[in-house]
Structure formats: C-alpha cells, structure tokens
Amino acid sequence: MSFLLLSLFAFVIGSVPTGLIIAKTRGIDIRGIGSGNIGATNVLRTTGKWPALLTLVGDMLKGIIPVLAARYIHPGLLFEGLIGIIAVLGHNFSVFLKFRGGKGVATSLGVLFIYSPQTALITIIIWLMTVLISRYSSMGALVSFGILPLNIFLFDAPGKLPVALVLTGLMFIRHRENISNLLKGTERKVGKRA
Question: What whole-number distance in Å separates Cα of residue 140 and Cα of residue 118?
Fold first, then answer.
C-alpha cells in the first residue's frame, strides 16, 4: 500500500509543469515557442535566466522530494530507485498536460542527488563541460547520462545500476528528436533566443 501511495505521489509531483507555470507568470506559453519543451533550457531561450533557474530548481525538487519520502518510509535501493523513476516518468508524461511533458534531465538529477550524490555531481560536471564545449544542452544530457551507468558502477553500489540504466534509457528516448537534429545540424544552441 505504501508503495502504491508513494508512487501516485511521485507521479503527481513529477507531473507539475514547473517551467510552464513560471513562464506563464510572464505571460508566455513556452509550448508554442522555441523547442516547445517545458524544461529549463527552453525557459532560458524564451523567458530569461532567472525563470530558467527557478525552473531548474523546481524540476530538481520533483526528483528530490519523492526519493527522500521513499527513504523515510521504506529505505532501500529498489524502493527508492523505483520511486525516483516514477517521478521522472511523471515529468516526462505529465498528467496535467495530457501525458506530454519534458525530457527529465533536471528531475533525473534531483533523483540522483539523493539516490547517488557522488554520481550526481559527476553527471553535472560532465553535463557542464559538454555544454561549454558544444553549446548544446541536449548533447550535455546525452553524454552525461550516457556514461551514468559506468559512473554508478565505478563510484557507487552495483545494486544501483538497474536504476541508472533506466534513467539513461529514458533520457535517450526523450531526446530522440534532439539526436536527429544534432545529426542534421539543426539543433538549437544554448542561449539562442527563440
């Protein structure tokens, strides 16, 4: 029962469209501007730095809060990991947006901050370095989460590897269009105004 209730809680929390709400306070519906995505990168393009930062923090909290709740209610790698994945699924397929949503980068990082803090830090560093070099946020997400399973294996418990593989898989699934755009050379760079 606790798993079902916490799963519902995680999915609903994950579903809150932080970026959409923040952008709407500025009179902007980001679903029709830029990439149309509700994440921090598109908020940055369409609304500015501070709204993007608020979106980033809010989306990370959507991963942090459910995993903390899982740890409090029933500590364990499997339980915490599954609740984290459900929170990311809530973000990606929001119940408030007819099961459409974001790409799960910030929410996945929020999950990692509790589930595997050291690899969360490594993932952020790799993401930042990749973005600084390439100027593509999507490239940063794909590279940093692409090697997340290896980082989990090297720097944390092997029992966390299944959760890492699922998070990586979800990241690549949600970035299919970005991968296509990167290959075609049509992907938008970070900071480019919409």
Answer: 18
